[in-house]
Amino acid sequence: MDGESQPPTFKKATVNSMMQTHFTDKKTKANQVSVKLMTELLREFATEGAVRSGIQAKREGLDMITIEHFEKILPQLLLDF
Amino acid sequence: MDGHDVQGRLRVSCLSQRLKAAFHYTVGKICEKFAEENDVTFTRKLLPLFSEAVCQQAQSFAVDLELFANHAKRTTINADDVKLLVRKNPDLLDRINGLCDAETATNEMLRENKKSKQRKTKKPSAPTAISDESNNADS
């Protein structure tokens, strides 16, 4: 699709089936609005992770983001979501 | 019977593998975009780790949402459950609220257009501007 104008995001169908596989009750469903909001939430989580890893790498004066940078920001990232 | 169970389990694991692959792809895209914009590079080994973290987070979200819906004696998850999920992060809550309002507004507009369309079919003298608007909203 057009990757230029819109930021890359998850497909709604993917998010929906991902949630569906983790529901304990098979009768549980998610309506359209909630799936859209969840998609946005997960995109925000991924973006935030990338940005914070980048900031951590910059703070250490590096251009290469490594696993250690991600490990350092992960606890606060998980607390914020 | 045993064979059927194994097949079912295989199908489930295959599905979750594909879902993880889809998540991996999108997380990769997001990282790529960030790397391009900020002139940094990600270690190749970081990507699988990162997408796994996103998957785990999605799983925890799904479990919470189901519990919230069950607590409200519903079987369908709606926008209120998602709002409850992000209640501890005010900025995120604002964003989700804004998105939710926009979504309900567009839904209502679509419904209004549908109604006016129905009215139009009954009364052919209705103005044509409404149908143009509804066509734009649909696309």
TrEMBL record, chain A:
Its main location: nucleus. The keyword DNA damage applies. It is found in: Nucleus. The keyword Cell division does not apply. Keywords: DNA damage, DNA repair, DNA-binding, Nucleus. Gene3D superfamilies: 1.20.5.4980, 6.10.130.30. Belongs to the CENP-X/MHF2 family. Heterodimer with CENPX, sometimes called MHF; this interaction stabilizes both partners. MHF heterodimers can assemble to form tetrameric structures. MHF also coassemble with CENPT-CENPW heterodimers at centromeres to form the tetrameric CENP-T-W-S-X complex. Forms a discrete complex with FANCM and CENPX, called FANCM-MHF; this interaction, probably mediated by direct binding between CENPS and FANCM, leads to synergistic activation of double-stranded DNA binding and strongly stimulates FANCM-mediated DNA remodeling. PANTHER family: CENTROMERE PROTEIN X. This is Centromere protein X. It comes from Priapulus caudatus (Priapulid worm). The gene is LOC106806942.
UniProtKB/TrEMBL annotation, chain B:
It holds the Pfam family CENP-S. The keyword DNA-binding applies. Residues 107-139 are annotated as: Disordered. Keywords: DNA damage, DNA repair, DNA-binding. InterPro entries: CENP-S/Mhf1 (IPR029003), Histone-fold (IPR009072). SUPFAM superfamilies: Histone-fold (SSF47113). Belongs to the TAF9 family. CENP-S/MHF1 subfamily. This is Centromere protein S. It comes from Priapulus caudatus (Priapulid worm). The lineage of its organism: Eukaryota, Metazoa, Ecdysozoa, Scalidophora, Priapulida.
